[in-house]
Amino acid sequence: MATGKKAKNIGKNVKGKVKETTGKTVGNESLEAKGKLEQSAADAKQAGQKAKDTLT
């Protein structure tokens, strides 16, 4: 996996986790949901990159 893309996906995952935790803390369900969605998107991109790397 390209190091830059891996770092970017990890950063998005962390950012999503922060949003989720903040949403839980302040009771903002919308922010919590956005954080979970961002984490899922980052995980999917990372899985896609791993699959792509395996094929090449």
Portion of residues within helices = over 70%
- Number of E strands: 0
Count of helical regions: 2
Q: What radius of gyration results from the CA coordinates? A: 13 Å
Beta percentage is under 5%
Structural class designation: mainly alpha
How far is the first residue's CA from the last residue's CA? 10 Å
Order of helices and strands: HH
Mean pLDDT: 91
Inertia-based shape: elongated
Explain what this protein looks like in three dimensions:
- This protein has 56 residues and is mostly helical.
- 91% of the residues lie in helices and 0% in strands.
- The longest helix is centred in the last third of the chain and has 27 residues, at 29-55.
- Helix 1 packs antiparallel against helix 2 (29-55).
- The chain has helices at 3-26, 29-55.
- The radius of gyration is 13 Å and the shape is elongated.
- The protein is built from two helices and no strands.
